[in-house]
Amino acid sequence: MRPAILDPLFSPVSGLPGVGPKIAELLVKLLGCETPEDCRVIDLLFHAPFSLIDRRNQPGIAQAPQGAIVTITARVDRHQVPPRGKSNVPYRVFLHDDTGELTLVFFRGQAAWLEKQLPIDAEVTVSGMIDWFNGRASMVHPDYIVKAEEAESLPLVEPIYPLTAGLSPKTLRKIIDAALPRFPEMPEWIDLTLTQKQGLPSIRDSFHMLHEPRDPADIDPQAPARRRLAYDEFLAGQLSLSLVRQRLRKVAGRPAHATGAVSSKIMKALPFSLTSSQNDAIAEILKDMAGHERMLRLLQGDVGSGKTLVALMAMAAVIESGGQAVLMAPTEILARQHHATISKFAAFAGLGIEVLTGRTKGREREEILERIASGAAQIIIGTHALFQESVTYANLMLAVVDEQHRFGVHQRLRLTAKGISPHMLVMTATPIPRTLVLAAFGDMDVSKLTEKPAGRKPIQTITVPMERTGEIVGRLRSAIADGKKAYWICPLVEESEELDLMSAEERHATLVSSLGPDIGLIHGRMGGAEKDAAMMAFKNGETRLLVATTVVEVGVDVPDATIMVIEHAERFGLAQLHQLRGRVGRGDEASTCILLYKGPLGETGHARLSIMRETEDGFRIAEEDLKLRGEGELLGTRQSGTPGFRIASLEAHADLLEIARKDAAYLIERDPELTSERGQAIRTLLYLFRRDEAIRFLRAG
Ligand code: ADP
Ligand code: MG
What we know:
Layout: H1 21-31, H2 41-45, E1 51-54, E2 69-80, E3 91-96, E4 101-106, H3 111-117, E5 123-133, E6 136-140, E7 144-147, E8 157-160, H4 169-179, H5 192-198, H6 203-211, H7 224-250, H8 263-269, H9 276-290, E9 296-301, H10 307-320, E10 324-328, H11 332-346, E11 353-356, H12 362-374, E12 379-382, E13 396-402, H13 409-417, E14 423-428, H14 434-441, E15 445-449, E16 459-465, H15 469-481, E17 485-489, H16 497-515, E18 519-522, H17 528-540, E19 545-548, E20 561-566, H18 574-581, E21 591-597, H19 603-614, H20 618-629, H21 631-634, H22 637-640, H23 654-670, H24 677-688, H25 693-700
Parallel strand pairs: 4-6, 9-14, 9-15, 10-12, 10-13, 11-12, 13-14, 16-21, 17-19, 17-20, 18-19, 20-21
Antiparallel strand pairs: 1-8, 2-3, 2-5, 3-4, 5-6, 5-7
Helix pairs in contact: 6-7, 7-14, 7-23, 7-25, 9-10, 19-20
The structure holds adenosine-5'-diphosphate and magnesium ion (MG).
């Protein structure tokens, strides 16, 4: 149960003064809430200002610098009302102080209101931006107009918040001002020595300081209030991960004793030998699974490093112990492809393999479910469908989750909530910087594939302006005549699947008209069977050029494809470009990646393309990506809508993440059920940051 002390923070924002249904809708949008009911006061309080307006500058009219926000106290001389019917002429009010003259400009100004606010001869204080033109100072729509004797009431330093269309800064500020006093005193969960050493204010003070900045330094990520909130956020995250892990580990893993009966047959059938990275990773996995604790391991390896085979060897080990293994892929295509690859190798060991996705329907589905329930199915490959209610496993011992570069902590929680507790192997493609691994997974065990399979040639990457597309098409013609295979990737058109599709179809049509009919097309709107057919045709060589939208981004494996053309490369993020490029260079032929870009390139676009040209090192690319884009996108949170961080930033607060990680481990060790007084305070923290899913696991025991 949520501590009662938090009730005022968890009441809906619609209960705040000044928040009607319309504003409530805007807040839902602004704060990214799911529904108006789920939009709570605390969510509003986490909405942090990113800058501030300083109105303390009171230079006098003549000394007010162009474009500056200033506060001026002056006497009203006269009003100039626009002529009747000329609504495009503004209403002007003239003022003066000892230094000079100022014109206040109001478009569509209401005469009655202005006469009341700015009576002739009155001394007033106005605040806003100064604009100099032809030696005259003016201020368009001052932010504030008050009587001079009330100047004290002006907010001299004002926070500036991210807004959404239709919500004015003043309205938002009023609502936040109304929400702030609701923040209760709370028991402290941070160790006194840490608050003292780091100079951290209490949680309540931190929220006040967050919304009432006095100085630009208060907006800085390193401001004490922000550091406190960042630490708390990391601590909540690390604690909830630890609690989940503690719970996962409590359910004893069933040890898998590899006999080699299955794996040796597969090994014999392989046309290559494993890299030493692959061997190491397999050894680590087998060791984990042989113990009584459940395995929770992350397998990191750049695209093409051969993760699938490592997973297959792990699956072989549980099958040798009489268990089942699932492999969950993020997309249908990828699931089908894993199925094709794994079937090929597993056939040598005579294993029962099934594929189960949302597309599997009717009779076929029934039969597959039966084979899963009876244990006849030993390896089951699929999408989320694998964990639907209707699927019952005979003896699930290992779940492999192929997440590529998207994390899904939530999926793992769902799995556990279902009461399934197999060993877990999570595969991710882009080598993720350690700080991100920590933040997203906590202290997960990590295996890394650091080398590529032998014989891989480097991919030559070139950038070419779109004006030279014709030349590239010419080169493709001769490459295809030489028996090569190429991908042509069309970009995502912002927020429009329709246009996205059109651009791919159009490109397909122009390429067909210049290169001939044997060109495939694959995009997100196609049905599953159609996609499979297009992929197969390309794999078999019936088509030698495949025009695609980003559906081929993840994991698709056609080892003899050696040319990758990416159209409008400037529209892609680095991680995505790296993933796409990773589709080639998978065999022993030299490969080329052509980045077609439309100039002029912005600074970031330029930086991205240069990095792509410079390096194939996924680790370096991931770090550069982090610098260029911020961690949210890299974590995939922006696409999938899973909650990321509200205040904490991995770039600014990495030191705090380290501390939080250690503190969380210490706290959980001392008080695993969070029952002590400090433990109770910690529960409050978890609710405050909405990391309370983990508390369920405590009660479930
Ligand atoms: P990823 O890590 O991107 O998932 P895959 O598992 O799809 O990579 O492997 C990429 C390609 O490399 C596949 O065609 C796979 O069969 C091949 N491969 C895997 N391991 C080796 C190896 N040790 N030597 C040669 N080729 C390998
Ligand atoms: Mg893969």
